[in-house]
Fold this sequence. Notes:
Elements: E1 3-4, H1 6-18, E2 26-30, E3 39-43, E4 51-55, E5 58-62, H2 64-69, E6 73-81, E7 87-95
Parallel strand pairs: 1-6, 2-5
Antiparallel strand pairs: 2-3, 4-5, 6-7
Amino acid sequence: xxxxxxxxxxxxxxxxxxxxxxxxxxxxxxxxxxxxxxxxxxxxxxxxxxxxxxxxxxxxxxxxxxxxxxxxxxxxxxxxxxxxxxxxxxxxxxxxxxxxxxxx
Length: 104
């Protein structure tokens, strides 16, 4: 299942609050054209077949195909230098770190 870092959860809370989404609204991740990557948008509610991840006041809606692709990933926020030289925050997808297995 997609993991969400604390920093990403705070960013989602800020976005949904600023957008004045209704209760139950959240961040939706879809793939309208999978060859072009993923699309993030704010949604007042999930689509009928979306996989819903919710907790700590944050909701993320994933298209079923996106849920499969992101199953072993983590959603994070990273600072990136903007075109004006200022830092801006962007969502990023990374690989979940697996706990180390004890060696026999």
